[in-house]
Amino acid sequence: VGLIPLEEAQRRVLGGCAPLHPRAVPLDDALGCVTSVPLMADEAVPPFANTAMDGYAVRASDTADAPVRLRVAGTLAAGADPSTVTVEPGTAVRIMTGAAIPTGADAVVMVERTAAEEDGAAVVIQVPASPGDHVRPAGEDLAPGQEVFPARTRLGAGHLGVLASLGYVNVPVYPRPRVGVLSTGDELVDGPVELRPGQIRDSNRHTLLALVRQTGCEPVDLGLVRDDEGAITAAVEKGAAGCDALVTSGGVSVGDFDYVKAVLDRLGRMQWMQVAIKPAKPLAFGDVRGTPVFGLPGNPVSSMVSFELFARPGLRQLMGFPPDRLLRRPVRGVAGEALRRRPDGKTHFVRVVASPGDDGRYHVRSSGGQASNLLRAMALANALAVLPDGDGVDEGGSVDVLLLT
Ligand code: AMP
Ligand code: MG
Fold first, then answer.
1. pLDDT digits (tens, 9 = 90+) for 210-260
2. 199 lines ligand 1 (CB under 6 A)
3. CB hemisphere CA count around 189 (13 angstroms)
């Protein structure tokens, strides 16, 4: 069987993952979503000129000969209507951070540079002010009509705050994909049960649900399904109907009871690939009635690496990320110890701990046993070292690293 290069398999996956239809999503649900159109400002931020300091709003020209004594014409707290007072020549208004600059004033003197008289009716301004001192002009952050964020911006916490400051209640984004996760295998059990002979506990579903969430999608637990055509059919049909993508693990290699294969072939259009990588050589990808399906291998490390190399980029494309932001970009690292392998026509992804060195580069060391069933070494790894076909890399040699965080 011919092995498919990694890049070709990734191309096929991305070819089958179209971005979801954009829609308006409540602001607080949009964290991590990608904008579908440029977002514009309808209002100025800040909406009015206001003070950056607690102090006195003054006419700067009144303070040229400081120290000067000014009559206090009133007080403005943040939120107060500024039309209640005016700063006439020879007067000042007590003002708190965030309050609007009253008519007549063009500067603020911070309270530390003033001395109020005991009854509060007058204040001595101790230093001269220049026009604009401690005044935050209207529209300083954003002007009406301005583009705030371009299309295809991933919304973080700060973005949501900016949009809230503009009065956005809903945001036009590519919606968060609902991603169904399914484990298959007669050997698997879940929950607080005692293992019978031949049984193991289902770990993949929990890992994959977490990876789906980490990717920014909404995980949907489709459960643990027996190696039984009817049960797998029911789970896949339910998932395809209610989710934007499906991730299965197990049953995609060449074992005797790999019914996932039969079911997916019957319900959907699948490609069964053998990718030139280790771990995670087998990959099934296709769609069931338009819903992309990632059939990942069952070995726990393989399913994680396969998710990382295929499902994550595909899901990011559903999420509206642009083409140059689907795959992780490798960083150049240095082998902190020899990373050995044998030539086999495949690219190896070695579970490593990458730590920043004094030379500014990541130094990588194996995180433990590299067999595809040894999940702990994968859990301890924060990166995958990419070893091209060959003998590996000597200690001190440079190596490409995919940082997983
Ligand atoms: P399969 O791909 O179904 O042939 O499974 C390959 C290996 O992965 C076998 O050792 C399975 O027992 C194991 N495996 C499959 N699914 C899971 C799972 N959900 N959790 C843990 N191990 C699994
Ligand atoms: Mg199986």
1. 999 999 999 999 999 999 999 999 999 999 999 999 999 998 877 777 789
2. no
3. 10
Distance 251 CA to ligand 2 centre (A): 4
For 144-185, strand residue ranges (E) read 147-149, 170-174, 178-184
Ligand nearest to the backbone CA of 284: 1
42-100 residue pLDDT tens:
999 999 999 999 999 999 999 999 999 999 999 999 999 999 999 999 999 999 999 99
Q: Distance between CA atoms of 359 and 345, rounded to whole angstroms?
A: 33
Nearest bound ligand to the CA of residue 295: 1
pTM: 0.95
* Backbone CA torsion sign across 339, 340, 345, 346: negative
E strands along 150-217, which residues? 170-174, 178-184, 188-189, 200-201
Burial (CB < 10 A; 0-12, 13-18, 19+), residue 5, is middle
Among 202, 249, 283, 296, say which to mutate for ligand 1: greatest number of ligand atoms within 8 Å of CB.
249
Cis peptide, bond prior to residue 279, ω within 30 of zero: yes
Pocket test for ligand 1, best of 184, 186, 188 (most atoms within 8 A of CB): 188
For residues 40 and 146, is the Cβ–Cβ distance under 8 A? Answer: yes
Q: What is the pLDDT of residues 21-43, one digit of tens each?
A: 999 999 999 999 999 999 999 99
256 C-alpha vs ligand 2 centroid, how far in Å?
A: 9
Does ligand 1 have an atom closer than 6 angstroms to the CB of 227? no
**Is the minimum distance from the CB of 320 to ligand 1 under 6 angstroms?**
no
DSSP 8-state symbol, 311: I
- Closest ligand by atom to 202 CA: 1
Lowest-pLDDT choice from 172-186, 240-254, 326-340: 240-254
Residues 6+ apart with CB under 8 A from 169: 26, 27
Q: Give Cα 226 to chain centroid, integer Å.
A: 34
| 303 Cβ inside 6 Å of ligand 1 | no
CA distance 313 to 328: 8
Q: What beta strand segments (E) does 322-396 contain?
A: 331-335, 339-340, 347-356, 362-366, 383-387, 392-393
Q: Which atom of ligand 1 is nearest to the CA of 255?
A: 4
